[in-house]
C-alpha cells in the first residue's frame, strides 16, 4: 500500500505510469395460464424493492431432456390428452440513498433468466462457440422405461396442463430420482427442470411434492449432466418464494457451493444464480457466506465466461449487503479482479464492477484494498471514458475513498483526477454534477490546510 502525507511524497514514492490489475493477469403462448416470474424479471425488479440486491443464470445447450431446441415430434400421449382437455376448458440517510441509486442502476446491466437454453448467450451478446468439444461428453442413455425415457416433449403441452393434472407426472419424476440407475435419475432431474422452467404454480407443486430433498444429493453426482440438471432444477424451483426456505433448510447451500467449485461452466453459473436467489432472504446471506461461497464466486469472476463473470458480480453484490461478507470478499481477493474489470472498458461489466467496489468501499479493509490494487487510477479513467452511469458510479466510489482520507485525495490529484472532475461538474447529470462538485471540495481542503500551516 502506498503511504504518503502530501502530494510531494506521493510523487516521490509512486511510479509515474499507471498499472491496472487485469482479470487475465490473475488466471484465466396462446394458452392463458398463470406465469411465474423468470429470473430475469426478478433481476429487473429486485433493486426497486430492496436497497442492496441484484441478480443471474444460464443453461447449457447440450441437455438430455431440457434443451431449448425442443420439438413436438415426440410427445407423451398422456400429456397430450391432458393438454387437449385443458384447452377445451378454458410482485434514509444520504449514503443509503446513494446505494439505492446504485442498486436500481445495477439491474440495468443484468440479464439473467431461469432455464433458457441458449437464450442467455443472445441476451448477453455472446456468440455461440463453434467448438462443441467437451472433456465430459454426455453419456449414452441407459435403458429407462415409460415417460422418463422420452428425450424431449413439447413445452407447449407442459405450459397448458394444470398443476393438478401434472401431479402424476411429478410423481413419476420423484420415483425416478430414487432409482439406482444414473440415466433414470438424470432424466427425472431434467424433466423436473423443464416442468419448473416458467410456471410458478408448477414450481410450488414440485416443491410440495418433496422433490427438493431428493434433488440435493444429485448436486454431488459424478455425472456432470445429472449435476447440471439438478442444479438448474433447484434454481428454477427457487424462483418460487415458498421454495426458498425449503431449499435452504434442506441443506442445499453447501451442495450448491460444491457445484460452484466443481461443476461445468453452466453448472457453476446456475449454482451462483441459485445462491443469489436464496440470498434474497436476508438471513440466508450470512449463512451462504459462512459456508464458503465467496471464494469460488471470486474464482468464477476471474476464470468464468462473460456470463459467469456477470453472475458472480451480481451474486457477490447481494451477498455483500452483509458487512461480514464484505470483509470476506476483500479477504478472498475480490478487489483486484473488480478493479481489472473497471479498467477493461467495453466488456459490459465495468459499471457493475464499480457498483460492487462501491459496496466494498464501505468497510476499511475494502478501501485499503481498492487503493492498493490500483483502484484510483482505474476510476479516474472511468470518469474520462465510461458511460454516463459509469461516470456516476466512479465518482461515488472515489467519494467514499476520499471523504476521510487526505492521503487518498493526494493520490487522486496525482492521478490527474481534477480536470475530468471539473469537466464532469459542468457537463454531467444533476446527480453526477453534485457528486463531482463535492469531491472537488474535498480535494481543495488538503491544500487549504497546508497553506494555513505554512510559516
Brief summary of the model shown:
The protein is an all-alpha fold and 455 residues long. Helices cover 64% and strands 0% of the residues.
Description:
The chain has 27 helices and no strands. It is an all-alpha fold and 455 residues long. Among the domains are: 144-250, Leucine-rich Repeat Variant; 333-447, Leucine-rich Repeat Variant (Alpha Horseshoe). α8 (163-177) runs antiparallel to α9 (182-195) and α15 packs parallel to α18 (306-319). The radius of gyration is 25 Å and the shape is elongated. Pfam families: ARM_PUB (PF25598). Residues 186-446 form the U-box domain. This is ARM repeat superfamily protein. Keywords: Repeat, Ubl conjugation pathway.
Ends apart, CA distance between termini: 31 Å
Radius of gyration: 25 Å
Series of secondary-structure elements, N-terminal to C-terminal: HHHHHHHHHHHHHHHHHHHHHHHHHHH
Proportion of beta-strand residues: under 5%
CATH superfamily membership of the domain at 333-447, which one? Leucine-rich Repeat Variant
| CATH second-level architecture of the domain at 333-447 | Alpha Horseshoe
The level of helicity is 55-70%
CATH level 1 name of the domain at 333-447: Mainly Alpha
Structural class: mainly alpha
Amino acid at each position: 500500500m502506498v503511504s504518503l502525507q502530501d502530494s510531494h511524497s506521493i510523487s516521490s514514492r509512486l511510479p509515474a505510469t499507471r498499472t491496472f490489475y487485469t482479470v487475465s493477469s490473475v488466471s484465466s403462448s396462446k394458452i392463458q395460464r398463470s406465469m411465474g416470474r423468470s429470473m430475469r424479471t426478478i433481476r429487473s425488479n429486485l433493486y426497486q424493492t430492496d436497497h442492496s440486491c441484484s441478480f443471474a443464470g444460464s443453461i447449457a445447450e447440450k441437455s438430455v431432456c431440457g434443451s431449448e431446441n425442443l420439438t413436438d415430434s415426440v410427445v407423451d400421449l398422456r400429456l397430450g390428452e391432458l393438454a387437449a382437455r385443458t384447452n377445451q376448458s378454458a410482485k434514509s440517510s444520504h449514503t443509503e440513498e446513494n446505494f439505492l441509486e446504485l442498486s436500481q442502476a445495477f439491474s440495468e446491466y443484468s440479464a439473467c433468466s431461469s432455464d433458457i437454453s441458449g437464450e442467455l448467450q443472445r441476451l448477453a451478446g455472446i456468440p455461440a462457440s463453434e467448438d462443441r468439444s467437451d472433456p465430459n461428453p454426455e453419456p449414452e442413455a441407459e435403458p429407462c422405461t415409460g415417460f422418463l425415457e422420452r428425450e424431449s416433449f413439447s413445452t407447449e403441452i407442459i405450459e397448458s396442463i394444470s398443476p393438478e393434472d401434472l401431479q402424476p407426472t411429478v410423481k413419476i419424476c420423484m420415483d425416478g430420482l430414487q432409482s439406482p440407475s444414473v440415466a433414470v435419475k438424470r432424466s427425472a432431474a431434467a424433466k423436473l427442470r423443464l416442468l419448473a422452467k416458467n410456471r410458478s404454480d408448477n414450481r410450488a407443486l414440485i416443491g410440495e411434492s418433496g422433490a427438493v430433498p431428493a434433488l440435493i444429493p444429485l448436486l454431488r453426482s459424478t455425472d456432470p449432466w445429472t449435476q447440471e440438471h439438478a442444479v438448474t432444477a433447484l434454481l428454477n424451483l427457487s424462483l418460487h418464494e415458498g421454495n426458498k426456505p425449503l431449499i435452504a433448510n434442506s441443506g442445499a447451500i453447501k451442495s450448491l457451493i460444491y457445484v460452484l467449485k466443481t461443476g461445468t461452466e453452466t453448472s457453476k453459473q446456475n449454482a451462483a444464480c441459485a445462491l443469489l436467489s436464496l440470498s434474497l432472504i436476508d438471513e440466508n446471506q450470512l449463512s451462504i457466506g459462512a459456508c464458503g461461497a465467496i471464494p469460488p464466486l471470486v474464482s468464477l469472476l476471474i476464470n468464468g465466461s462473460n456470463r459467469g463473470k456477470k453472475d458472480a458480480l451480481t451474486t457477490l453484490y447481494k451477498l455483500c449487503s452483509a458487512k461480514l461478507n464484505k470483509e470476506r470478499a476483500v479477504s478472498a481477493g475480490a478487489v483486484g479482479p473488480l478493479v481489472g474489470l473497471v479498467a477493461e472498458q467495453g466488456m459490459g461489466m465495468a459499471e457493475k464492477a464499480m457498483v460492487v467496489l462501491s459496496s466494498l468501499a464501505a468497510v476499511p479493509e475494502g478501501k485499503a484494498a481498492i487503493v492498493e490494487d490500483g483502484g484510483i487510477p482505474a476510476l479516474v479513467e472511468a470518469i474520462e471514458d465510461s458511460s454516463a452511469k459509469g461516470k456516476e458510479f466512479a465518482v461515488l466510489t472515489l467519494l467514499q475513498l476520499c471523504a476521510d482520507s487526505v492521503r487518498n485525495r493526494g493520490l487522486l490529484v496525482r492521478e490527474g483526477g481534477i480536470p475530468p472532475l471539473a469537466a464532469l461538474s459542468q457537463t454531467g447529470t444533476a446527480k453526477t454534477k453534485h457528486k463531482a462538485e463535492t469531491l472537488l471540495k474535498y480535494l481543495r481542503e488538503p491544500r487549504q490546510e497546508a497553506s494555513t500551516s505554512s510559516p
